[in-house]
Design goal:
Distance between the termini: 38 Å
Number of strands: 11
Radius of gyration: 13 Å
Number of helices: 0
Largest sheet: 7 strands, mixed
Length: 114
């Protein structure tokens, strides 16, 4: 049972990245999924949620720039990030909301800098 994030990297302000979260070992389509991020020296914060049917919500500061999506046939969740800002620099984590022990990925670093 695991989640593996990918797609992070270094990008200039205004640029785009698409993060992926590949799930294995459980029935992905049954679970609500989330993206979180943790910037240096700050607490981890919630970024976006998507339910089994594709309904979603995002943090106000990223609305209109970030889009969460999922492909239940590929067992993968995505975070499309556009118009990136330096304050978006963080380690991004995906999470599966499981009843007893929420499952976390290992994180992928996103750095927005010129």
């Amino acid at each position: 049972v695991q989640l593996v994030e990918s797609g992070g990297g270094l990008v200039q302000p205004g640029g785009s990245l698409r993060l992926s979260c590949a799930a294995s070992g459980f029935t992905f389509r049954n679970y609500v999924m989330m993206w979180h991020r943790q910037a240096p020296g700050k607490e981890r914060e919630w970024v976006a949620t998507i339910n089994s049917f594709g309904g979603s919500n995002t943090l106000d500061s990223v609305k209109g720039r970030f889009t969460i999506s999922r492909d239940n046939d590929l067992n993968t969740m995505y975070l499309q990030m556009n118009s990136l800002k330096p304050e978006d620099t963080a380690v991004y984590y995906c999470q599966a909301i499981m009843p007893l022990n929420p499952l976390w990925g290992q994180g992928t670093q996103v750095t927005v800098s010129s």
